[in-house]
Amino acid sequence: MRKLLLSFIVFLLGSHVFAQTKITLKSADGKLIFLFWLSKENPVYQLIYNGKALVDESGLGLDFKETGAFGPGLKLGKPVFTNVDEHYELVVGKAKNVHHVHRQVLIPLLETTGAKRKINLVARAFDEGIAFRYEFPDQSNWKEYTLTDENTSFNLAGNPKVTSLLFDNYTSSHEGLYQKQQLSHVPEKKLMDIPALFEFADHVFLAITEANLRDYAGMYLSKKNDVLKSQLSPLPGQREIKVKAVLPHRTPWRVMLVSDRVGKLIESNVLTSLNEPSQTTDFSWLKPGKTSFHWWNGDVTPDTTFSPGANFETNKYYIDFCARNHIEYHSVIGYGGFAWYPTNGPGYGDPGSYSDVTKSVPSLDMQQICDYAKQKGVGIHVWVHWKALYPQLEAAFTQFEKWGIKGMMVDFMDRDDQEMVKIQEQILSRAVAHKLFIQFHGSFKPTGLSRTYPNEFTREGTYNYENNKWRETGISPEHDMDIAFTRLLAGASDYHLGGFRAVKPDEFKTHYTRPMMIGTRCHMLAMYVVMESYLHMVADYPEAYEGQPGFEFLQKVPTNWDETKVLDATIGESLTIARRKEKKWYVGTINSSSAKALKIGLDFLNDGSFQAEIFSDAPDSSENPNHLTKKVQQVKKGGFLEINLAPGGGQVVIISPKSE
Fold this sequence. Notes:
By secondary structure, the protein is an alpha+beta fold. The chain is built from 13 helices and 43 strands. Helix 5 (312-324) packs parallel to helix 6.
């Protein structure tokens, strides 16, 4: 009897240790609840939205090479709750002034045996999402770590529909066609790229991504036994070690954006709110804008007396075009696959064993090009392979600043391991010091770091219109829609915009020079509003634009915004986004391959009268997709825009106060 009683007492004591009271963190509006507690095996969390579990009991933990798993047998320290009401201004972004209210809890987790390490879990609750991360405070018995696995899991309730990219390995430019399927059908062992979008049966939407990725490995998701678990990109040359760090240290934020209105996920500024302000206060030199990019059109030049190539005359042709048409930048790339700088590599994608980006090839005088462009009011930015740039980073940036270059596309990065993440931040940091902007290509998604480094203008990590140069069926309007509802949630996306040769899908052919487009001319115009990027390309050649219907919109549309509102959004069908710059609103609508009519409310306008300049699909756009109509009409708050969309169609509207 005594043994039974003693066993019962031990059971009760053990239950008390591991059946802790749940720590509860609520969003300000009370709709989102983050619950946290300790089980015997590991820390656990749950996510509730409007009274229903979106994420059921999900384990957390970390595995270290030196000291094993951090998760079993922990005890809680005293949680610290704080309320934050934050106002801040973005230099570049979908909004200029951001106001965020969030609630935070810091939960100390302490090992009771062994190394007795301490890790804090910090969670934040916003009205549109939950974020958490692991923090490693300075401690006397633990100085550094080697991480082999991060065991963050997402045990999603029910069987939501997933829109995601799936990869076989970590070496990736993060480009592909999105797959749509129920979570139960997602194959195991595949790497699910993020952001990934999940739609639940009651039309609640959840997107998983990460924020503030610095000095850490990029995260993917992988399904095992119907539960999604974090997978970190390993350091090069091996597969075991993911992160090496010295304390104090911290992981990126694991972010779950949530709403019953999918457009709210696009509007959200949670990712920038999870990043630190810039340490640089003067960005008066930084000018978002649009740029030429002649590689996309096939390096087209007119039939003139000069020979096209990596020379002054070819670049002058595009600089003059930019100057005539209010396009802020011209890209100096090279010509025909060969770079503007000396290299023994066989093409753009291979820097060879020798490259020197502090010099230009003999046929091209970079100082002459920069001086001429400056006279014309055009900025110069250059393309570089990252392996050619990085070994001589400081010397290159010093020379770029001396020439008068304003920024660069850094290409072919194709990794998101800790080493590459640190390289990219180093490039951004040194570029700020030399007043240069950066456009990352062949790169992973953004994580809100444009708040800390506003000179990060845009990133690729997007399967975009460059693929029309070689993909047999071209990029479809449905793919544009998939990008907007997934990749766009992470931030700016470089999409090779501006193709002005639209054809019907059955007439599409691959053209490396003068690529064709699927979707109407107005669909292309609308992409400049729908897609977020602070350096949109105007990637076709001058004669493709000048005198063409709709080009005047490209001359006017900004790339940096004061406010963003999603007016209408149906996944896979249509999307309407309104973005404000000063007193003008720019409204863009893109459509799938099925014709439809929409009625878009104008309740976002202030009181007063406004003039709307409307570019719409023409009545015959289904047969002649380059055709469009233009009209001007008066609109006001409480009114509507009537939109008739051709298959693959679109519409753009510039709404100005009537007094202007």
